[in-house]
Write a structure and sequence with these properties.
6-stranded mixed β-sheet, 2-enoyl-CoA Hydratase, Chain A, domain 1, Pdz3 Domain, 36% helix, alpha+beta, 6-stranded antiparallel β-sheet, 16 helices, 2 domains
């Protein structure tokens, strides 16, 4: 009887969705989709700084040819985008981003309901992480068995197909599915007014829960605050371990500016606190942190460095003739101006940064840099500037990495300024990175993976149920034992 009730509830949800969800726009004829695909191919060949790392040019062209030939029926923009994802994944670049145009995004977010909770994707399964303010639909530790009759394993697999990663990295895919779960679920399965979940609790077994979907504006208004104006950078002192725990949730300058924080002032205060408390260890928690400006990584590492260092051994570009690109490709003016000034003449279509460029200079440690033990905590959301900070800390031997493999490739990665490609017929927007960074130092990571921690630690279901951070608990215990 219980199974019949679940099936009936799922059927009602499907009928409810069919009655209210208008989709992602009108269908486009194959001829128009082929034009968009051809434009995208040309833009990638001419602007992406490293498109042939995991696939040869010939193989990439053959893949585009096969894709274009496969476009035999009308598609909506979202379905066209979904078909592009396996093709783009062959390039292996998480900074190659594709999405709906802004007008369609706004229309969809204004009309479509989403799931009213966040999730955690652990090795043991998919779990409810946090409900929106005022909701009490789930007990702590709820593991998702299915949503609207779709099994959790299939949901994770389907949603993961929207995520482009650096090479074979899977930790970033996991992080992206967690972070964008509601939106990716909407892209994959459409919207409904209500959702039927089958969940399993640690003590009471399986149960059916029906939740009401919310519009994006409702989600924003209902979302639990991160505390009273919590800043992106914050620190906490642990007396027993003699450790200063420093959480850097982003290395994006605009995010810090928006919060009112001044990076240099924070670093100075952090070092002052470490000296006042006679700290034995500092932990830099970079989980979920990103940011395009490598200068931020330089600023933070200087605060713990013991000797001069540099973040990069080189930068390369391939878009050496931006003025000749098609009109659908928009390149930042400052990038165009920097080509002749900052880069050597191109060799085989690739231009390298001049060796006397300040970005390749050695940087001195801060005057009163911390000299004790340092740990860096990372995960699948640690990327770009934050990942470089973790890499240099690990490779110079200054810090021990703890947590999970970082999202950014350990050998070279793209970033910095991007070209914006507008696919006229579908309206899709593609951001193509213009720079390839080669981090300094050596790594033992495989060619298609990110820097890996010396001490692998991940969140646990039991800790999730009790509202604890298993990674922090384990590291603090380690530091206390070695005090």
């Amino acid at each position: 009887m219980w199974r019949v009730q679940v099936m009936l509830a799922v059927l009602m949800v499907a009928l409810d969705a069919a009655g209210q969800w208008a989709g992602f726009g009108a269908t486009l004829y194959p001829e128009k989709l082929r034009i968009d695909a051809g434009l995208l191919r040309d833009a990638i060949h001419r602007t992406h700084p490293d498109p042939y790392r995991y696939v040869t040019r010939g193989e990439l062209d053959a893949a585009f040819d096969a894709f274009i030939d496969s476009l035999q029926e009308p598609l909506t923009p979202d379905r066209f985008m979904s078909k592009l994802m396996p093709l783009l994944s062959r390039i292996g670049d998480s900074n190659l981003r594709i999405g709906l145009d802004s007008a369609m995004n706004e229309r969809v977010l204004g009309a479509a309901t989403q799931l009213p909770f966040t999730v955690r994707l652990l090795e043991e399964g998919l779990y409810i992480n946090e409900e929106l303010t005022g909701f009490r639909s789930f007990d702590p530790g709820a593991r998702i068995i299915s949503i609207n009759g779709i099994g959790a394993d299939r949901i994770v697999r389907d949603l993961g197909q929207w995520v482009l990663t650096d090479g074979a990295n899977e930790t970033f895919r996991t992080h992206a599915v967690e972070r964008e779960f509601g939106w990716l679920f909407l892209l994959t399965y459409g919207a409904a007014r209500t959702y039927v979940l089958e969940v399993e609790y640690p003590r009471s077994g399986r149960r059916e829960v029906v939740v009401r979907g919310l519009l994006w504006d409702e989600i924003v208004r209902s979302r639990k605050p991160d505390g009273a104006a919590l800043h992106p950078w914050r620190s906490a002192w642990d007396e027993e371990s003699g450790c200063l725990w420093v959480s850097l949730t982003t290395l994006a300058p605009e995010a810090l500016l928006k919060s009112g924080q001044k990076p240099r002032a924070f670093i100075d205060a952090m070092l002052k606190d470490a000296r006042a408390n006679k700290a034995r260890a500092v932990v830099l928690d970079l989980r979920g942190a990103d940011g395009p400006e490598l200068g931020m990584a330089e600023l933070v590492f200087a605060a713990i460095a013991r000797e001069p260092f540099r973040l990069l051994q080189g930068i390369t570009v391939r878009a050496t003739q931006p003025q000749a690109l098609p009109g659908a490709v928009e390149v930042p003016a400052d990038f165009v101006a920097s080509i002749d000034r900052s880069y050597l003449p191109a060799q085989n279509g690739i231009a390298a940064l001049r060796p006397d460029d300040p970005r390749l200079w050695l940087v001195a440690p801060a005057k009163r840099a911390f000299t004790g033990k340092v740990y860096v905590v990372c995960d699948g959301g640690t990327r770009d500037a934050a990942a470089v900070l973790g890499m240099v800390a690990h490779r110079t031997g200054r810090a021990r990495l703890v947590g999970e493999e970082m999202a950014t490739n350990a050998h070279s990665f793209t970033g910095g300024r991007s070209a914006v490609v507008t696919l006229h017929n579908s309206g899709l927007r593609v951001d193509v990175p213009l720079l390839r960074y080669i981090p300094d130092g050596s790594t033992e990571a495989p060619a298609d993976h990110g820097e890996r921690p010396r001490y692998p630690v991940a969140q646990q279901p039991s800790a999730l149920m009790n509202g604890r951070d298993a990674v922090r608990t384990a590291l603090i215990a380690l530091i206390r034992e070695t005090r």
